[in-house]
Amino acid sequence: MKRLNKFLCILMMLSLMLAISVPALAAGGAIDTSKTGSLNLYKYDITSAAAAGAWDAGSHVTTGAEDSSVSSALGSYAIKGVKYSYIKVADITAFNSFVGGVGSSMVLYSMPSGTASEQLLSALGISYSDAHHQVENNYYFTSDKLIDALASSLSSNSTDTKNALENYIYTQGGTALPETDQYGHTSATDLQLGLYLVVETAVPQNVTSTTDPFLVSVPMTAADGSGWLYDITLYPKNNTGGPTLEKTVREASESTGKNTGSTESITDGYAHTATGSNGDVMQYQIISTLPTITSAASQLTAYSFADNLSKGLTYAQNDVVVEFFRDAECAEKVATWNQADGKFAVNYGSSDGGSSMTISVTEPGLTEINTSSTVHDTSGTQRGYSGCTMRITYTAIINGDSSVVYGDSGNPNDVTLTWRRTNADYYDTLQDDCHVYVYGLDLTKEFSDGAGNYENVKMTVHNDTDDYYVQASQTEGVYYVTGRTANEEEATVFTPLEKKIVIKGLEDDAYAIKETATDEGYSLLGDSIKVVISMSEGSVCDTCNKATLTASGTVNGEAGEMATDGSSAHALITLTVTNSKGFDLPQTGGNGTWIYTTIGIVLMAGAAAIFFIVTRRRPGRR
Fold it and tell me: What is the Cα–Cα distance from 68 to 109, expressed in whole angstroms?
């Protein structure tokens, strides 16, 4: 039933919109063979017009005559850059017959025998035997036979029929119309009378489905049957649309509790914002829904991603993987491409002080995307990986130095998708980005009397959330996180420089700062200092229209202050640690020993007295 409905729909479209049916000689008389004809085409974006309520399926029926109401309603939806080609496929002639004394006249289309006619008829699914009659080497067909054949072929296999007729135009030397202008218009003049095949051969980037090839008779009967139209105006329409693009990121390690480590799930911790520590591996993914591909004319000729990474991160390189899925959730995999396959190329470079990477689908890859039969059944209208989800994954490492932006400004990573269809002069782009946030600690060390030696202070930092000790290296008075260790003896020992311990490269976690040594005469901190860096949504990014992250912190459960780092706010949580003087203990050696001698004499004297009292004989006893 669905196939029948589709057939009837196409048949109606061809009979009404394309209007090659000429039921009989027009009331205005015989065709004037001394005239030539013209063809005007106006191309409109039916998808946008329908969405805006400017057009619906019953808004207009093409009659071949110019209709100012169409231009008025759809003029703002004109599509520039569509290319058509046309070719004359048959002569038009009046056929007169007398049967049983009754005469009749009808219009027929004659094709000479030969390779060209055979190729056309084969594409339509008919042959010479379907002709109304034959005169020598010429075969005469009715308009009904040609309409029905084209409708049936498009209904049973739209893509193959489109491709076959596009190929026919190409091999038989069809004439290219100028591409449609800003009004969506193109035209051909001084056309010899006859039957023409018109095929859409190239489209700009936003056209998802080409108009079906159509036949047009020059001249054609006026809608009211009053005469012949030699100057014909048609309004074929296109559906438009494009791919989608989304870029997300996550920290690679599942030990953070932010993901489960699944490499298959596109939602396992991936988001437009993520935090990490210096040295962490960040996993990026680019998700793009491929545009619709219906025939050779709507195939992709370019599909590339320009990725820019801020200078605070470095591409791991040579780990790009491209996957294709039937569904938006990326659960039903169709294919996996690796760099060695040659279906995409990766080029690395620099960009605005950072680094860049371009991922371009190569000719073999485009061929697979455009023509693969893995996804779509040959009886459908779509081809290749049309409508599939493309997933690109790669990794980058957060640097352990001053190139990282610490705080709310974040470390952005944007990607731009560029795609072209068969009209390579037209392209479009989509852009998306994500941000990685990194933070730090600004600890001020003080002694209660201001006299201590800071060089004798030693501290370690433990990440309580992920259970590791922080490792870092010092450059120009700042400690930059370089890694992590499970062993306390391998942890970096932090010592104040000019009263400060500044550590950059921490993510949003809970930390314990432990003082392991201090200057002589001062008390060690009794307990570790508990510091927590937390994240919340910040303002909306001007370029990406997504919520950014902002940091806050606590010190031993109390709200802490977040200091700026350069122009980036909320970058470093600040705290002050003070060592107090210890208890005064007696010195050993020299004059200091007199007190011990005195205490010893007193103790010995007391013991002797007690012994005397206990043991002396009482009076009256022996």
Answer: 31
Residue 601, C-beta contacts closer than 8 angstroms, at least 6 positions apart: none
Alpha helices in 302-447 (DSSP H): 363-371
Domain boundaries, the chain: 2-240, 246-437, 439-579
Give the CA distances from residue 583 to residues 448, 515, 520, 524, in Å, rounded to whole numbers and listed in that order.
13, 19, 11, 12
Q: Which phi and psi (to 5°) does residue 55 adopt?
A: -155, 145
Nearest CA-CA partner of 360 in 420, 284, 311: 420
The answer to whether domain 2-240 and domain 439-579 are alike in fold is yes
Q: Which residue has the higher pLDDT, 341 or 539?
A: 341
What is the C-alpha to C-alpha distance for residues 65 and 77, in angstroms, rounded to an integer? 20
Q: Provide, rounded to the nearest whole percent, the portion of the chain with pLDDT above 90.
A: 60
The backbone region for 342, taken as left when phi is positive above 0, alpha when psi lies in -120 to 50, beta otherwise, is left
Q: In this structure, which topology does domain 2-240 adopt according to CATH?
A: Immunoglobulin-like (2.60.40)
Give CATH for domain 439-579.
2.60.40.10
pLDDT of residue 600: 53
pLDDT, position 61:
66
What is the separation of C-alpha 107 from the centre of its chain, rounded to a whole number of angstroms? 54
Which whole number is the average pLDDT over 109-114?
94
Mean pLDDT of 361-382: 89
Contacts of 392 (CB under 8 A, 6+ apart): 285, 286, 288, 305, 320, 321, 322, 323, 359
Question: Which residues neighbour 185 within 8 Å (Cβ) at sequence distance 6 or greater?
Answer: 40, 41, 42, 43, 78
Q: Residue 96 — very low, low, confident or very high, per pLDDT cuts 50/70/90?
A: low
CA dihedral 364, 245, 287, 550 (to 10 degrees): 150
pLDDT tens digits for range 549-589: 999 999 999 999 999 999 999 999 999 999 888 644 443 33
Token pair for 69: 């109401």
CB–CB of 243/417 below 8 Å? Answer: yes
Q: What is the pTM of this model?
A: 0.77
CATH assignment of 246-437?
Answer: 2.60.40.740
